[in-house]
Every structure is written in structure tokens, then in C-alpha cells.
Amino acid sequence: MNRSEVFIFDYGVVALWNFSKAEERQFLSIILKFGVGLLNSDDVEIEDFHFQYDLAGPHQPRIFNDMITLKSSSPLIKLTISHGLAQSVKLSLFENAMEETIDGATPLPRMMAKYGQVKMSRIEIMKIVGQLFRLKMNVNLVSNVLDTPEIFWAEPELEGLYNAIRGYLEISQRAKLLNSRADVLSDLLDMLSEHLNSNEMTFITWVVIVLIFFAVIIAIAEVVVKVYKMQAGIE
């Protein structure tokens, strides 16, 4: 029961059981060498839980006050719990990214309401649009991560425990809130896109006006030249 166990998920989360901090660092330093698209250390999400064995306790494992109580050391039980914990960590990553992005973009609607336009350069606006669009795509991807893992098709008796872990971590509610914020994100993207299109049309309109102005000037100049020549011929 005192052995260490680890579960690695293909969406970039690792669940470590019975590892000391030093052992965690050592193990992670090894697997990070094979990682792709690694996050900055400041963006890494960590959730710590304690666990214990209670052989005389209830048959079903349980979690309360971040304490996981197990009836046995079954790897399948730990994998089931790890699935829920891993999904929660991945969700936290996008929750924080969403909050930071929306907070950073909050002044834009206020600017539109106050000035009728976004007082930023086109390049700055395009950078924000790119960030928002990338985050929106990531939110769509996380919905796949939060699907029920396929292992529970083969082990349906474990799905109840998995759902209990998800319920404790409020994954469904958090995912719903994340999707609501993604809708706000979509509205913000639409607003910025319309603003960019409007600015582009305004620029094109001014180009046309300038061209018409010069065309009129040239036409007037031609008329003046013709009149001058006619007067010179009469004389």
C-alpha cells in the first residue's frame, strides 16, 4: 500500500500518488524532457490532496475536505479518481486564462461606449483578437477533455465513483460557467471584428473621397486650360 503510483494523461496532466516533493520534482524533470508545447512555470496548475486507507471503513472510496479515503490500493480506483482530478486541473488552467483574458479586454467595451471607437492601433487590436480567438479554440478543446473517459465503458462499475469525484470538484458547474464566459468572448470578438471592418471601410471611403477630389481638381484644371486656350485663340 505504500508504493508510489503515477498516471499520465495525454492532455498534459500527471497524477502522482504517494510521492514526496523531492520525488515529484525528480520524476517531473524526467518526463518534461519528452513534453511538447510546455507551459511556462508560472502557468502550471497544481492541486494537492491527501489520501489514507481505511480498511474497516465503507466499501466505496470517498473524498471529503480534500481527504481521499480508500478501501484498498486498487490501481483502477486510483485511476478513476485521477481522471476526475486531472480534468479539474485542466479546467483550472482554462478558467484562469479566461479570467485574465476577459479582465484584460474589459476596457474595450467601455472605450467603445465612451468614445464610440477603440482607441488602439490596428496591430494592437489584431493581437487581442488573436488572443481571444486562440482562447476560444482552447475552450472548445477542453470540452473534449471533460468527456467521460472510455475506460468506464469497459469498467462501468467505476463510473459512479468518477461522477462523485466530478461532483465534489464541481466540474460540470465550472464547465458551464466557462462556456458562458466563452459566449462573452464571442461577443467581444464580434465587436472587435466589426470595429476593424468599420475602420477598414472608413479608410477605403476616405481613399475614394481623396481620389474623387483629385479627379475633380484635374477636371477643373483641364476646363481652365481649355478656356484659357480658347481665349488665347480668340485674341
TrEMBL record:
<keyword id="KW-0472">Membrane</keyword>
<keyword id="KW-0812">Transmembrane</keyword>
<dbReference type="InterPro" id="IPR003734">
    <property type="entry name" value="DUF155"/>
</dbReference>
<dbReference type="GO" id="GO:0005739">
    <property type="term" value="C:mitochondrion"/>
</dbReference>
<dbReference type="Pfam" id="PF02582">
    <property type="entry name" value="DUF155"/>
</dbReference>
<feature type="domain" description="DUF155">
    <location>
        <begin position="6"/>
        <end position="179"/>
    </location>
</feature>
<protein>
    <recommendedName>
        <fullName>DUF155 domain-containing protein</fullName>
    </recommendedName>
</protein>
<feature type="transmembrane region" description="Helical">
    <location>
        <begin position="203"/>
        <end position="225"/>
    </location>
</feature>
<keyword id="KW-1133">Transmembrane helix</keyword>
<dbReference type="InterPro" id="IPR051624">
    <property type="entry name" value="RMD1/Sad1-interacting"/>
</dbReference>
<comment type="similarity">
    <text>Belongs to the RMD1/sif2 family.</text>
</comment>
